[in-house]
Design brief:
Layout: E1 4-8, E2 14-19, H1 27-37, E3 47-50, E4 53-60, E5 63-69, H2 75-93, H3 98-103, H4 105-115, E6 116-117, E7 120-121, H5 126-132, H6 145-156, E8 172-185, E9 191-205, E10 211-216, H7 219-222, E11 244-247, H8 253-259, E12 262-264, E13 269-278, E14 286-295, E15 298-307, E16 314-323, E17 328-335, E18 339-343, E19 348-357, E20 361-370, E21 384-390, E22 399-406, E23 411-412, E24 417-431
Parallel strand pairs: 8-24
Antiparallel strand pairs: 1-2, 1-5, 3-4, 4-5, 6-7, 8-9, 9-13, 10-12, 10-22, 11-13, 14-15, 15-20, 16-19, 16-21, 17-20, 18-19, 21-24, 22-23
Length: 433
Amino acid sequence: MISAVFLYNHKGDGILVRLYRDDVLRAAMDAFRVHVIHSRKPVRSPVHNLANTSFFHLKINNVWLVACTRQNANAALVFEFLRKFVAVIQAYFGVFSEVSLKSNFALVYELLDEVLDFGYPQSTDPDVLKLMIQTHEGGALVKTKEDQVKITSQVTGQIGWRREGIKYRKHELFLDVFESVNVLMSPSGQVLTSHVSGSIRMKAYLSGMPECKFGINDKVATQDRAAPVKEKGKKSTDPIAIDDLTFHQCVRLGKFDVDRSISFIPPDGEFELMKYRTTQDVIIPFRVTPMVQELGSRIDITIAIKAEFDPRIEAPRVQINVPVPTSASRVNAFTEKGKAKYNPGENVVNWKMKHVAGGKTYQLNTEIELLQVSDKKKWTRPPITVSFEIPLACSGLQVKYLRLVESKLKYDDTTTLKWVRYIGRSGLYEIRF
């Protein structure tokens, strides 16, 4: 596996070096500096092979993090370890930078000894590492024998992400569904491309070791046939087709493969339970229809936006950015909803609205007067962009149930306060015109 880990600054000066095997010497550090960092050619590949030694590297905040090996290692595993190590440093010091590494080099060496054993990755969970390696202004913290037994049990046990003995007077469980909607529309309002990237985050304030289980309206779990085509008025409880899924390590993948139920023992506090992506039957929350009239030295742009979601739902903030030509001498914008203001620095008209209810249609009229210029180039018309936030899962995902039980402490979901929230935000939401 990994034979050594090197850390350089942006000039190529070594910050830290940790050797795990005898097949790689310190001279390899100089070879990487000369052939990669000081190379006159741009660095395009994250993997370099020099003298039968493979170097896997990341550059974050002007710091080079390099893992090298002479074996045929799994590249995906090595890069996953490097990313996890960056997350560990950020969890300890707040930022992965040259200053934080040099200021805490002794602690970084301890972390490197814990996360790698003879070059093989070990636990990279920051919560587990903080139980073993802690910082204190007055020096090292003295742990009792009971604390050491708990740490050993957590690190070597099957549930390394949660320690035993957690107690809360009030049991609460918060589930947030965050989605980013990416859409590209034609001038006629036809959807050209669309996809949704989602994340389910959970805050668990539960005592003991509770067993949690929840289900979503995934079409594989509800039926074997293809998901029906979404039409206007489609209910959000209809099954959806999820293309990609990534779970937290606490989820039992065996049970999910059998009955598509997501069962787990949650970590304490806030964590990301799963990430997903869907490209089929995306709910389009806003449909924008532009109309442009070019009249010599004048351009009239009319923008109509319709909120195509349930009238009981309200979007708290919506902003439409309408590009205008760089040769514009005067811009007047009129609207019946919100405020529209011309931004000459970015050559756009910013139309901001608050509390947009579903089913409503609003219009913006923009009059543009152009300067008389000798070099008349055709206006390229950059796309209109829309930014918004709405309490709706645009993928159609819905949490069907959320259950939990703790057999030792004898409490379940009936005595637990549970919250589920859906938040949809705009990603790259563009309309051509």
